[in-house]
Amino acid sequence: MRKPLIAGNWKLHNTVEQSCQLAQALVNDLSDVTETEIVIAPVFTALSEVGKICTESPVQLAAQNCHCMDDGAYTGEVSVPLLADVGCSHIIVGHSERRQYFGETDHFVNVKARAILKHGLTAIICVGETLEQRESGELFEVIAAQIRGALEEITAEQMAQVVLAYEPVWAIGTGKTATSEEAEEVHAYIRGLLHGSFGTDIASQCRILYGGSVKPGNISELMAEEDIDGALVGGASLKAEDFSAIVRFKK
Ligand code: PEP
Questions:
Q1: Coil, helix or strand for 92?
Q2: CATH code for position 112
Q3: What keywords are assigned to this protein (predicted)?
């Protein structure tokens, strides 16, 4: 059985004070949740303070990005050990906004994922096609290339610390959600790829999240699909009430 995971990506929103208020509201609302794993990803500057609020609560801390090197002359970057130092247990890599605006390639995503796993943190690796790619029939080719690229040289043992997130680019922040059938088709395909590369056990244990305009109103339908194990939530994770409702989705 795969434990559901709901992750909130706060993107470039909220001051330290606002982040702390939101985190505190979630910690208060969700203190009794044990059946679903909960992760929030504030901006870098709020990680340390939010990490303190989440200590001894079921809410876990994620960073939205990291650098692949541990230290050195890499101006402006933040490493995995430094993120672990402020309480991060998870790091998101390969988000489509990073691929689109910051030129991140599958290779770079892979290098970062390996750095995260080397330090024992969990990598939430995002993949997803653009509308153009979907409409031109390249959906599965694109997803396969992103998954294979991101997981290169990652061992079967390390896969226990990998969470995948399927986020169709056309559904992120647009209000357009993939139907649960559309999402399930890709999730099942990704699980098939994992089966081919790592075997049945890893394929059946790896959690694959869906992301793209997830809201309290559509989470239950998505979660009813066999291969959808949780959600990566952007906009709706910025309101404690909505995010809590998503975490407490009806089964
Ligand atoms: C995201 O940022 O990963 C995301 C899915 O955003 P939204 O829920 O706003 O579409």
A1: strand
A2: 3.20.20.70
A3: Cytoplasm, Gluconeogenesis, Glycolysis, Isomerase
Give the separation between CA 203 and CA 102, rounded to whole angstroms. 30
Pocket of ligand 1 (CB under 6 A): 9, 11, 167, 172-173, 211-214, 232-236
CA–CA separation, 50 and 43 (whole Å):
10
Which domain, by its residues, includes 49?
5-247
Amino acid identity at 148: R
The ipTM assigned to this model is 0.96
Q: What is the pLDDT of residues 168-192, one digit of tens each?
A: 999 998 888 889 999 999 999 999 9
Catalytic residue, from 95, 104, 184, 187: name it.
95
* Residues present in the chain in total: 251
Least Cα distance to 63 among 55, 73, 72, 81 occurs for: 81
Question: What is the model's pTM?
Answer: 0.97
* C-alpha span between 62 and 140 (Å, rounded): 28
Give the model confidence (pLDDT) of 17-29 as tens digits: 999 999 999 999 9
Q: Which residues pair with residue 8 across a beta bridge?
A: 40, 233
CA of 71 to the centre of ligand 1 (A): 30
